[in-house]
Design a protein that fits this description.
With 133 residues, this protein is an all-beta fold. The protein contains no helices and nine strands. The strands form two sheets. Strands 1, 2, 4, 7 and 9 form a five-stranded antiparallel beta sheet that branches. It has a four-stranded antiparallel beta sheet with strand order 3-8-5-6, with no helix packed on it. The N terminus is likely disordered.
Length: 133
C-alpha cells in the first residue's frame, strides 16, 4: 500500500505510486443467445487491444434459459472459440451477475436448451478501462 508524505490518511503527494491514466467506456446492449454449448456460444464483447483491460459491469437474464457467461483470454476474434477461461458464471432465468474482471479479451455466452427459434435473452453492460500512456 502506498503512503503519502503524511501517512495513510492525509493530504500530500504519493511519492511511491506511479500515476496511471485510464480511458473508460460504458457499453450496454440487449442480446439473444441461440447456442446451447461453448461451440455455439455467441460473442457479447471482444477487443483486439493488447493492453491490459480492467472491467466491471453486469449481465441480466430476462429469458427462460440459464445463461453461461465466460470471460476468455486468447479466443478466436471472429468465432470466439478457444482461449483460456478467466472467469465463468451461470446466470439463472430472472437473475443477474455483477462482475469485476481483468486480463481477458472476449466475453461469450451460451444457454443450455436455447435454439435459434427459442433463444435465451439478456442485457449486458460493461465498463472497460484501458491504461494509456
Amino acid at each position: 500500500m502506498c503512503q503519502n508524505s503524511i501517512g495513510n490518511m492525509g493530504h500530500g503527494d504519493f511519492s511511491c505510486c506511479d500515476p496511471k491514466n485510464f480511458v473508460q467506456d460504458k457499453i450496454c446492449n440487449n442480446f439473444t443467445v441461440s447456442g446451447d454449448d461453448v461451440v455455439g456460444a455467441d460473442i457479447l464483447y471482444a477487443t483486439n487491444s493488447n493492453e491490459l483491460i480492467f472491467s466491471s459491469g453486469y449481465i441480466k437474464n430476462v429469458g427462460n434459459f440459464p445463461i453461461t457467461v465466460q470471460f476468455v483470454k486468447g479466443a478466436d476474434p471472429i468465432t470466439g472459440i478457444g482461449g483460456t477461461i478467466v472467469r465463468q458464471a451461470d446466470v439463472t432465468s430472472g437473475g443477474s451477475f455483477s462482475f469485476t474482471v481483468s486480463r481477458f479479451d472476449t466475453v461469450r455466452a451460451f444457454a443450455t436448451g436455447a435454439t435459434p427459434l427459442l433463444p435465451a435473452a439478456g442485457e449486458f453492460c460493461i465498463t472497460p478501462r484501458y491504461v494509456i500512456g
